[in-house]
Fold this protein.
Amino acid sequence: MRFEEAEQYFRLTTKDQENVSYEVRVNDLVSDQHQMLRFLEMYQSQIGTTDKHVPAVAFCKWFSLVAAGFQYFVSVDNSAVDLSPGNLTIQAYPVGDYTFFSFKVHRDIVTRAPADGAQRNVWRERAFAAFYGDTVRPVIDRLAEQAGIGAGQLWGQFPPKLMWFIDVVSKEIDGGAEQRIEADYQYLISGVDPRVFGRKRNPFAIRWKTVESMEDPQKQVYLQPTCCMNYRLEGIDYCYTCPRLTEAERAERREAFRSANCHQTNT
């Protein structure tokens, strides 16, 4: 098992964090609405907001690491780790002024993929259905219910982390699994039945749009599928890649950033 890499990249671990300020097993979080409400209130107080939309969306950005970690195990390790709600605990802990999350796997039970290609496809279908249908979807549905936010807004936080795994992390891991990584990602975005996610459309089937990087005019960066809601926090503006920004506003942001950097370079 590759839990050392999983902890480094995806915060998936078999260890407890130090100075844990809050922890809850996923099955308790999704089975008890009061537990979810307490969780949201805890995170609200940590990030300083009275708006429940913000912690719900912010946590999904963290939880999307678990989805990227699941994909990593399937493609790189050719295995499915047990990420069922009863085997996964969310741990919150302070890092400076911020709250970080880690995801503890209690029993490192894995199911190895069959060697036969057709049998592996069946194994993969079952693994994806179990993970997204039994773990991720219940978390999102309960979060949406208690925060009063659309589930689509929460699902929208997941695709960027999978793209990060494909574009960045997979290039850093010497696993010799390039073909599996690509094939399994294509299955995620086009092969998984949308009903597994509880949606009419697969939330990972994104038509990605790119814009000129703020830092480097020779590079393109992805626009986010949905807003992360951080602009609702005090002193924080829209992200440069936020879909709420107009292209004129983005161009103004680029010009201001580059002018400031040019001034700093010349002083």
The chain has a mean pLDDT of 94.
